[in-house]
Amino acid sequence: MANLETTFVGIKSPNPFWLASAPPTDKEYNVRRAFEAGWGGVVWKTLGEDGPPVVNVNGPRYGAIWGADRRLLGLNNIELITDRPLQTNLDEMTRVKRDYPDRALIASLMVPVNEDSWKAILERVLETGCDGVELNFGCPHGMSERGMGSAVGQVPEYVQQVTEWCKKHSDLPVIVKLTPNIADIRKPAQAAKEGGADAVSLINTINSITSVDLDLFSPEPMIDGQGAHGGYCGPAVKPIALNMVAEIARDPGLRGLPISGIGGVTTWRDAAEFMALGAGNVQVCTAAMTYGFKIVQEMISGLSQYMDEKGFASIDDLVGRAVPNVVNWQDLNLNYVTKARIDQEACIKCGRCYAACEDTSHQAISMSEDRVFEVIDAECVACNLCVNVCPVDSCITMERLAAGEVDPRTGLTVSDSYANWTTHPNNPMKCAAE
Amino acid sequence: MSDTSLTPGIVAGRLDPKAYTENFSDLHPRLEGHEARVAADRCYFCHDAPCIAACPTEIDIPLFIRQIATGTPEAAAETILSQNILGGMCARVCPTETLCEQACVREAAEGKPVLIGQLQRYATDTLMEAGTHPFTRAAPTGKRIAVVGAGPAGLACAHRLAMKGHDVTMYDGRDKPGGLNEYGIAAYKTVEGFAEREVEWLLKIGGITVETGKRLGRDMTLAEMRGAHDAVFLGIGLGGVNALGLEAEDKDGIANAVDFIAELRQTGDLASLPVGRDVVVIGGGMTAVDAAVQAKLLGALNVSLVYRRGRDRMNASPYEQDLAASKGVRIITNAQPVAIHGNGAVREIEFEYTDNDLTPTGQTFRLAADQVFKAIGQTLEGGDLPDLEGRKIKVSGAGRTSLDGVWAGGDCAVGGDDLTVTAVAQGRDAAEDIHASLMG
């Protein structure tokens, strides 16, 4: 069985599956259950300044969207950081770390943007014996209106400043958690790096309104007839998170900056994808909130099996493996010519490929009287929409034309050489570039 | 309890009173909201969907299922009812496994079609329970039309004509409208008086007068009808029952399956309905299955359904055959009755095995029988009818008969599969043709 042991910014954990700082990690009771279930690490629910704790709403904190059979696809929340006294959290963290020395325990922090506040909180958390700190620059609701959370994360200068303070006043590894509510994720990542961060973690939740009650005309979750935007997470945000992780992983200026991948990780496969794109470990929240802590068992067995099948001895063999293949559009090979192919044996004749192509694409699928659907190569641009809408797995595939074949759509012979847009004769920028 | 399944003869009250309620409860209880949305989500929304083509009334099935999936079952019901005003009954009695659900691409893919029939019921029940009727009448045309027979064909025809603004009088020989929906379908397929409620709901369109107890050929003639109306639609069904052609067919204990089913449907207290200990049903169609299954559910000890050809030739669908078998009905095929034995009342019925060409084999057997139901088909009855083709009314186009101003549809007319849904389609289409003819 593959070794899932992970060392992330010097912090060891028996597997790369950590619970993200969120409701599941707010209390000793929950965290003990998580460790008993097998989670490799926990980022404790964000701690704030000493003093009277924040107050949460007393109505619904979560909104959701569902797929078929009420499968939860996306969750949004308007919960704030921990609403329990700081000392209570610190005492609990101390006990948990003492009892689970082999697991990673990270303190998530969010205090106002001044050096004294950060110095004070760092001194307090150091006593717990925790393995590192994560700076919460991400929460998009409630705290951001008080100048914290994403209000910090959206300003690279603040990110760098706070990171510097944390490195100055603590020897603990510092992970900077990034908000996705920003145009270019590389900017705050760069700021974190320049501030001396040991790693970044992303993504935090996305500004969102999950739905609107069409009787009350209120956003969900509804509090007394009104709603505020909350942080969106769960399977629905995974593609956005993957891209942001990849953007950082492949940026020359950020290369080598450790990443903790967060955003819709629900299965071992999701975790493996984040890691292939450069994440050294992953953090999970919504999947645990949906199914309970036991899911980590599937993540562990699934990732082990996959790594065994691939011959990967350790996590390091997987991390970053897909990063070189993430390129800009202009670098894609225009001589890679494919056509849709419909497996007539597998086809169930629903006609969705036809409707999609005929109504919304390139009229490249024909339909006969007896519902035989065939690709018209002379029209097919290989857009892949038919593959995506076909309800039958592997019924429609994209097959590459071999070099030397003629593409009936363009009349051009397929070349086996690589050629991208920068070298294409139609590119007006080409001459200027030369 | 005085009588049990073992009591010989035709007796009532064979079962514990609670058993009747259980036995005759809804065969397919209505889907709950979540079940319906999950079932609806399985629909692929096919292009030019095969299920639509497989429906005799051409309901836009993918559209109504999508309307259910998006939380508007009332709109789904309107989609259904605009094509098939008896969509509620059809959802209960259609052999969907040989129509829409057989054509469903998921049947081809996985052997598990979308539950079209049950979804249709979910939608139509939702709308009908709200008590709304989504259709309104056009401006009055002043045309008066007679619809003879208040079964599925007649009801569909009358509704469509009323919607077009015509004044319709619907005649029926029985005490209640509804035809076979009311008198001829197994009770567990249409519980809680659904047939009657559906007719009441249908009549909310207005402009339809119902005259029951008026049978063509008994209480009135077609000539009178034609004289008093601008058009006549005949949806009179098949009033007669085929005979076995055996001696002693009039012995006590021998009855028509359709009469047994009708009596059962109209009985308030099923425990008061007598049934034999050893019941034999002769025939291979839906009527035979409905009679056999219900005899079993009433507490008969042995129920045999005997059909003269092979299983594959039975008009009852494989689903119905399985239903019968699951209720304990023994299905015997390739055997035809040759003699009735008994003194006054039937005691045994003798069969001879046949091959698939109905050639007798010389091998015979006897089944104990204190009750025999004949279900070998029905025949058209009535005087001064339009020309026949074979044993049914000859029609062309949308139900035009040999007589000017007279249309026909449903079981009495040539064509179709003698299904409720076919009758609805024919009644509806005849109404459109009548309207076009009168207003042209």
TrEMBL record, chain A:
EC annotation? 1.3.1.1
Answer yes or no on keyword Transferase: no
InterPro entries, per the entry: 4Fe4S_Fe-S-bd, 4Fe4S_Fe_S_CS, Aldolase_TIM, Dihydroorotate_DH_cat
Fetch the Gene3D superfamilies from UniProt. 3.30.70.20, Aldolase class I
GO MF annotation list: dihydropyrimidine dehydrogenase (NAD+) activity; iron-sulfur cluster binding; metal ion binding
Family statement: Belongs to the dihydropyrimidine dehydrogenase family.
Listed under subunit, the entry gives: Heterotetramer of 2 PreA and 2 PreT subunits.
- Assigned keywords, A-Z: Iron, Iron-sulfur, Metal-binding, Oxidoreductase
**The organism's taxonomic lineage, starting at the top:** Bacteria, Pseudomonadati, Pseudomonadota, Alphaproteobacteria, Rhodobacterales
Q: Does the keyword Metal-binding apply?
A: yes
Q: State the GO CC annotations.
A: cytoplasm
Domain of life the protein comes from: Bacteria
- Name of the featured protein: dihydrouracil dehydrogenase (NAD(+))
- What does this gene product do? Involved in pyrimidine base degradation. Catalyzes physiologically the reduction of uracil to 5,6-dihydrouracil (DHU) by using NADH as a specific cosubstrate. It also catalyzes the reverse reaction and the reduction of thymine to 5,6-dihydrothymine (DHT).
Database matches in CDD domains: DHPD_FMN (cd02940)
The catalytic activity, as recorded, is: 5,6-dihydrothymine + NAD(+) = thymine + NADH + H(+); 5,6-dihydrouracil + NAD(+) = uracil + NADH + H(+)
TrEMBL record, chain B:
Q: Which residues form a coiled coil?
A: none
Annotated GO molecular function terms are: iron-sulfur cluster binding; oxidoreductase activity
**Domain Dihydroprymidine dehydrogenase: residue ranges:** 22-130
Gene3D superfamilies noted in UniProt: Alpha-helical ferredoxin, FAD/NAD(P)-binding domain
Q: Please list the residue ranges annotated as the FAD/NAD(P)-binding domain.
A: 144-427
The organism sits in which domain of life? Answer: Bacteria
Give the PANTHER family listed for this entry.
GLUTAMATE SYNTHASE [NADPH] SMALL CHAIN (PTHR42783), GLUTAMATE SYNTHASE [NADPH] SMALL CHAIN-RELATED (PTHR42783:SF3)
Name the record gives this protein: Glutamate synthase (NADPH/NADH) small chain
Recorded source organism is: Roseovarius litoreus
